[in-house]
Each structure stands twice: as C-alpha cells, then as structure tokens.
Amino acid sequence: MWHNFVKNHFVVETGLETFILGFYFVYVRNYFVDKDQFEPFVHHFADPYVAVALICVGLLALFVGLWDVHWFKAKALVLTAMQIVWTIYFVLFLWHDYNSPGPVGIGTILAGAVVMRILVEARWGDRL
Q1: What is the DSSP letter of 45?
Q2: In whole angstroms, what is the distance from residue 88 CA to residue 43 CA?
Q3: For the whole model, what pTM was predicted?
Q4: Considering all CA atoms of the chain, what is the largest pairwise distance in Å, rounded to the nearest integer?
Q5: Residue among 17, 41, 50, 30 at smallest CA distance from 121
Q6: DSSP state of 54
Q7: Which residue, 37, 79, 91, 95, is the most exposed by fewest CB within 10 angstroms?
Q8: Per-residue pLDDT tens for 76-128?
Q9: Distance between alpha carbon 125 and the CA centroid of its chain, in Å?
C-alpha cells in the first residue's frame, strides 16, 4: 500500500482534502447564508446530503489512490469528479466573499489553489 501511496500521492492527498471539506460541512451549518437573490440556491451547497456526496468523492479518491485501481479509467474519473467539486466550491466561496464584508477568505484562496493543482496534475501529471 505504501508503494501505491507514493505512486498516487496526489490523488490520495486531494481525496483527503475533499473528504475533509465534506466533513467540515457536516458539522458547520449555514455557511453560505447570504442575503441576495441566489441565497436559496447557494445555501443548499452546505447541506448535509451534499456534504455526504463530498465525503463519498473523497473516499472514492482515497480508494483509487491507495489500491491503485485501474478499472474504467478510475484515476481520470476521480480527477474529473474532484475538479468539478472544487471548481464549484471555489466559485461559491468567491461569491460568499463578494457578498460579505471584509477581505477574501482563506477558504477561497485554498480552494483556488486546489483547483489549479488538479488542473496541473490532469494536464502534466502521470499518464492516466
């Protein structure tokens, strides 16, 4: 398993980050509460059932990375799923910071960094 971790460390690390984001939204309620016209839509991205979906994507990425799964191009599938998830949450964090007083939050900066890391890994990483 250690060999698979070293080989797929990016997928494992990003899967763990996705798992932690989902775990965070399970315990923190009403994170995206804004008083604008998109509040009902944005508010649902911090609901527990969406957080459970994040946890499932993170666990799937951990499974693919630690056991070096190659069925159905699993690594490409997991990278695509994590790219979609992190891009959506980057836009939501950016929208939340735009509607809140104060500077850009650290969550927005870190989500943007994760989005860029996934793009770089998908483009120039190991062959999928």
Answers
A1: G
A2: 13
A3: 0.87
A4: 50
A5: 17
A6: H
A7: 37
A8: 999 999 999 999 999 988 988 888 788 999 999 999 999 999 999 988 887 65
A9: 18
Please report the DSSP string for 36-49 in residue order: STTHHHHHGGGSHH
- What does the block give as tokens for 30? 């009403």
Structure tokens at 68: 């070096």
Reading the block at residue 20, the tokens are 């932690």
Q: Half-sphere exposure of residue 18, counting CA atoms within 13 Å on the CB side?
A: 32
- Amino acid 34: pLDDT: 63
CB atoms within 10 A of CB 21: 21
- Mean pLDDT of all residues in the chain? 88
The pLDDT, as a whole number, for residue 127 is 65
Determine the residue type at 118. I
Higher pLDDT, 45 or 104: 104
State the residue for tokens 């509460």: 33
Among 116, 97, 115, CA closest to 106: 97
Contact by Cβ (8 Å): 91, 112: no
